[in-house]
Amino acid sequence: MVTPVRVVIALCLLAPFVAMLWVGSYAKVDPAFIGIPFFYWYQMLWVLVSTALTMVAYQLWQRDQRARKTRTGGAAQ
């Protein structure tokens, strides 16, 4: 069943893949950050962003599962 919450979860999990697979968007040297070329610090930034997005997706999934159990009276689905 597709719900808005599940779409948000999917987008949270898909965004890091799209960002990292679209190499042309970050395959450059400038702007450098504290002497680190853009190519490297952009990827490191996505490590942190991916962690945050995964945590958000997990929390939304847990809330969705609790709500489904409540709606169905605790029956497993």
Automatic annotation (TrEMBL):
One Pfam family matching this protein: DUF3311
TM region(s), chain numbering: 7-27, 39-61
Keywords linked to the UniProt accession: Membrane, Transmembrane, Transmembrane helix
The organism's place on the tree of life at top rank: Bacteria
InterPro entries assigned to the protein according to its UniProt record, in alphabetical order: DUF3311
This protein's record includes keyword Ribosomal protein: no
Protein's UniProt name: Membrane protein
